[in-house]
Amino acid sequence: MAIQQQCAQDALNTSSSPRWYRVEGQGGLRLDLHVGDSVCITSADSNQGCELLFIDAQGQPLDSYLAQNDSVKAFADKAEGALAQLDQQSDSALRLKELLLAWGIGDQALQQAFRFEAQALPEFEVTEEATLIVLCCGRDMQVAEQSPVTELQIAHYTMSGNGLPQPLALPRSEFRVPSCSATSYEVKAGEWIQVIDVEGKQCSDFVAFDAAALKEGREEPLDAVATRTLNGLTLPQPGLHSKFTDARQQTMLEVVQDTVGRHDSFLFACNSKYYENSGYFGHINCTENFNRSLKRYGIAPRAGWPAINFFFNTHAGDCGTIGFEEPWSRAGDYVLLRASRDLICASSACPDDIDPANGWNPTDIHIRIYPATCEFPRSVGYRITPEEQPRMTKPTGFHGRTSALTKQFTEYRGYWVASEYQNYGARAEYLACRERVAVIDLTPLRKFEVLGPDAETLLQYALTRNVSRMAIGEVVYSAVCHSTGGMIDDGTLFRLGQHAFRWICGDSYCGIWLRQLAEEKGLQVQVRESTDQIHNVAVQGPQSRNLLQQIIWNGEACTPVSELGWFRFMTGRLDGPDGIPVMISRTGYTGELGFEVWCHPDKAEQVWDRIWETGEPYGIAPLGFDALDMLRIEAGLIFADHEFCAETNPYEAGIGFTVPLKTKTDDFVGRDAIAAQNPASRKKLVGLIINSQELVSHGDAVFNGRFPVGVVTSSTYSPVTKNQIALCRIESQFSESGTALEVGQLDGQRKRIPVSVTSLPFYDPERTRVRS
Prior knowledge:
The protein is of the alpha+beta class. Helix content is 17%, strand content 31%. Helix 10 (426-435) packs across helix 15 (625-634).
């Protein structure tokens, strides 16, 4: 953390603009360096080393490069071949070799790489032109190990170049749309359009026309109304609902990647009337810029263009108003589109400088056109912290198997997960889990290795549960709170050794939070994210034990699957002592007897195949997130941003059992705030039986007479109760079972749906099945 702060301070002390890059574990980065540049490399968790290779203009290694940098040469060691840090035949090593070969770098050149340990990562000034290769090497981590390869951050301070992100591939063409202008251009079917916000907070209006129709004298433009209607979304997004259409609802373009996720499809591109109504007569505007730019194609001018306004940040108020604020986009953010037919397109760099639409400072937009021969994965950008570069959605290690069974995928916390499966459907998947056995990909769970002599001390302070009472091989469910008692996350903690834990949760921010607490307390502990090295499926249902005990081998000193207790785990191998290493935990999110199987992602498909073929005699089915929602709501299990958020403490989220205030005497984050709350004033999580076929939804208010007393947090149809059920956070005086209330819809008053309060869980109230 101190090194990162120093890099940030160095950036403030230079006239150059910092460009930030991230190198994922077992990955690489290629940067062009110019005289006068400077580079600062840091480790996200302060425990990851790196290898650097400097290449001259002829593609030859610069063995003497670091000799000119006295401040760093003392810390550099020859890497003895950077790939020596990898398992040579592992999938990760082969992927990195393939990347390096694409850059023209072979094993012989890698012999000239310099290695830096995590405690001495370099910061240096560039004294001669070179290409820098940064490698983040390390061996695959098996599930019983705790040495993940974690990411590096690269700060490159330079006055050279145009400030753009590296191309996704070799562009067919690219051009700048200068501030306050618009440019028209042609694309062919299958080609890709990347719209890039060069400096951040800059809107770019976009219009497109069918090129063949224009040649026939007809205008068939992209139609925002048809697009919204067909997708059921305010704007398409990468995934299933990704198509821009014309008025006939025929696809024109597809959104393939989006690093922002906040755009506008409702408003005109800015026009003269908007500025005149605001008192700015003769102000340059996107509509007139479009009219001029499209004239050469014979497209008629308009007084207002119904455009797709990329990066424009609009919002609708409860009373029907539409407002806007500064864009979410940062420098280098982009949208990637693929043309479904030949198109005439136009993009603007909006000139609006009279309000926050462009952050009060109109700047440039950059367009790159990639040939149809390119292939780019569908992905959505997300950020753990606001200032970092976007992270893009990944497939899980099991994606090759799940994608063969369905195209119904949704983005969840940086991964593609199946919502339901073709030829099954949510109800059939649900019944398989309740009656037989089902398998679900839960890889998006975040995994953190917490190691060191103060590991228990840190976790005892950070988590609400009494970690000091945990035995090796035990799992506990816990909340993580901040100082107000509000929940940051929930998760399960595995104790792997005396000073070794694995925290498994939903939010990557937990790693940052744990490191901050450790630094504040001066604790000797490592917190390293291992999500990319451990992927997992849940095997759930009454036949799950019978299935897994046939294929999991364990050593003599290890508890077998057949005897594994509830909230315990074991390590073993698939099918024998030489099989794939796995970890098996007696945990789940369904309310059924169940287990989770953890493995390295490169072995995930083999693990899936073995589970599937062994489960076929039991009637195994895949399970998507839609069915999982039905299962977990019936079981009264909570979900982030539904049953809890940073303003909800564990008692109000329905997991007060994770806060043992009487038996845990040690302090923990949020303890004082939780203890100071009057128990009688706490809202409670209860169940609702919906006495109607009308649907209720997350966020619906629950009323006692005229006034709201609670809110629906989750709802589903329950095959067990044979009606609709919901989870609800409610004022304590209305939490008694049998209390009759109403869900209010429309404005809360115009439509009421009768409900009655019940205790949780709806299914198996004594939890005998999950404990069986």
